[in-house]
Each structure stands twice: as C-alpha cells, then as structure tokens.
Amino acid sequence: MYEIKDVARDMKAAAKRRRWLLILTPILFLMAAMVAIYFIEPKYQSTTTILVQKDETLNPLVLYEIAVHIAAEDRIQSLNEIIYSRSTMTILIDSLKLDSQVRNEGDKQQLIANTQNNIGTRLRASDSFEISYYDTDPVRARDGANFLANHFIESKLRMESRRHEETVKFFSNKLAELETIVENQRNQTVSSTSDRMRNMPSTSEALQDRLQSINSQSDSIEWQLLQEEEKLATLRSFQNAPNADQGMNHLYRLPLSDMQFGDELHLLLNEYDNLRRQYTGSYPRLRTLAEQIKQVANRMPSNLTTKIARLNSQKEDLNLQRQQVVGDMQLYFIDAQRASSQESDFSIYEGLQAEMRVKVEQAKMTRDIGMRAADQFIVLDSAVASEKPVSPNKALILGIGLLFGLVLGVVASAVAEAMDTTIRDETDIPFNKPIIAYLQNG
After folding, report:
1. Torsions phi, psi of 124, nearest 5?
2. How far, CA to CA in Å, does 396 sit from each of 27, 33, 42, 116?
3. What is the pLDDT of residues 206-242, one digit of tens each?
C-alpha cells in the first residue's frame, strides 16, 4: 500500500532531481527585483507643519464668542480646495520649472494631474495640518512643500481681506439705507390708529371665550357621533351575523336604555335569554322571539342614521362658526399689530440705525485686525531636503521577488516532474508484466 512515507520519499527524490530548477528560479527572480530597484527612480518626501491660532476677531455677522472659534476652522476647511486647485498647480509647476518637457495642452494636463498626485495633506489636530510633496529631487521636494505652505497662507489671507472689505461695504450701504428711512419716518406723522381700533370686530378676550365655547360644543358632538356610529356598527354586525346566537351577542353590547325601541328590544332580549337557558334553538317561542328581535333591531338603524346626519350638520355649523371666529381673531391681531407698528416704526428704525453703526465699526475693526492675520499662521516644522528616499521600498520588492521565485520554482518543478517519462524502476512500468532483467547504470 502506498503510504505517506512513500510520498515523502518520492517528493524528496523529485526535489533532488529538480534542485537546480528550485535554486535558479528564486535567484533569477531576486536578480530581476534588484534590476527593477535599480531602474525605479527614487522619490523623496518633504513635509511642513502649520499651526493656525485662534483669531480674536470681531465678526459682525455672528456673536463674539462664536467668531473666535470660527477663524481657525474656516482656514483649515479650505486647505484642500486651495492646495489642489489648478491655479496652484500651474504656479507650482512654473516655480519648480517642471514644464520643460511640455509640448502641447495634453502634456500640460497630464503634468498637472501628476503634480497633484505628488501632494499630500493631513489634518493633525483641529488647528494644525501637514503639507507633503514628493519628488525625485530632494531639494525640489523641499521647495515644493515650502511653496505650497506659503501659497496657502497668502491665498487664505488674500481671501479673508477681500471678504472683510466686502463686509464693510455691505454694512456701510445698509447704514445709508437706514438713515434715509429714519429721515422719512421723522417727516411722517403717526395717524389713523384710533380709527383702526374702532373697526376691530371685538375684544381679544371675547373672541377667545367664543372660540373655547365652540370647541367645547364640537368636542361634545364628536363624542356623540362616535357613540352613535358605534351603535350603528353593532346593529350592522347583528344583521350580518351568520346565526341568531352570534347576532344576539352583538345586541347585548348596545346601551338600549337611550335608544329608540330600546326598551322593547331589552324586554325581548331578556325573555330570549331566559328561554335559551331552558330550551334548544328549535323551541317555537325561541324562534318567534328571534324573529321579533330581528324586526325591532332592523327598525333602529334608520333612526341612528338620521341622528348621525343631524350631528354632522351641527358639526359643520360649528366648524363654520370656528372659522369665522378665527378669522376675526386674525383681523384683530393684524389690526393691533399694524397699529402698534405705526406707533413704533420710528423708534424701531432708530434702534436699527444704532445697531448698524456698531456693526460697521465692528466690520472695520475686523478688516484692520485681518491685515495682521499672517501672525496667526505658525510653521511648526519647515520642510527640509530628505537624505533617504521614501520609495521604492527595496526590502518589499526583494521579498516579493524571492517569494514569486520560490512559488514559480516549485510549480515549474512539479510540471517538469509530471511530464518526465523516464522509467527508473518497476513502479514506472504501466503494464502488469513480469520483469525478466534489469539494466544498471555504469
């Protein structure tokens, strides 16, 4: 029987026969990896770290406390938009003189894309970030990182300066508009307040009392409608019941005392219930009572339907009254607001004018403080020329080459062994025949 030790012996013999293939293949792949490392151009990385301090700037658009925290976050949020913009890439390419090989527009676009891929940004904390630049020249990598940091700071300061100027201009224009309105209000007289008050429909308290009364009546009618609809549904269930016993169970749930024909139906149900305990359903009197109960119950839905229609009509009337009262209340508050507005327009616009003067001064202070906002950016780590490239990773490439060589050597040895037709002993002969002689080597 072919056992495990036989398999191990055969594999050992095969490995011995194919030892050169197992040795040469990893060596060849290792040499190929070394050649690849030699031809791959190394890349160097330079990184600069920038800290953005919180700016004690008065922003007239928000509260003072909020404005202090917004400044740093707003500067960091636009980092990638500025760094990876096409205008920044164009200036960077020109600064580093990377466009010497550009011949047409397609080459330029490809160069911009490649340059963007050589840039990396990372937020280190809520108020600091890193800018990295990769290049085959360590000095150029350093210059690229420093250029991007300086360009970002300059662009951000230029954007903030323009925003501050636009804010000052906006509030100055609004102040001029308010001064014109206040002057017009000063020249007008407050009039017609008493006339509007006389034309009001009623007092606020009377309207609220009326609305509360209507709501109470409407709730009462809603409750009655619910009860009557439940009664009608119960009677419909009785009429649709498959047999008399199930139908009677529905009638027992009805409040018969306050329903038309309720007393009559109550007496019939009591008698039916008493006889049902003594006799079977075939008892003549039981059948007669069941028919009488059915006749009385069939007369009741029409009365309930009429009552429900009457309640719905009352409900609609109350809804119309409610709409009228609500409309009167709206007119009351509109007229009251209009009268109050006419009396206080001048003081309101005067207050707005004073507030606008304060906002204009705050905007001017923000603009003046923003002129020295460059102090808020602190370069923690300036970019330096790296002596050691970050790529290629020689150990990784050599490891992968050696691994592929070993795997391919094993596979090639296995294929060669499988295709080898050499007969070495009697187990390699596919015919079941007796052996008559051996030929030995040497």
Report:
1. -90, -35
2. 16, 10, 14, 26
3. 778 888 888 888 888 888 888 888 888 888 887 787 7
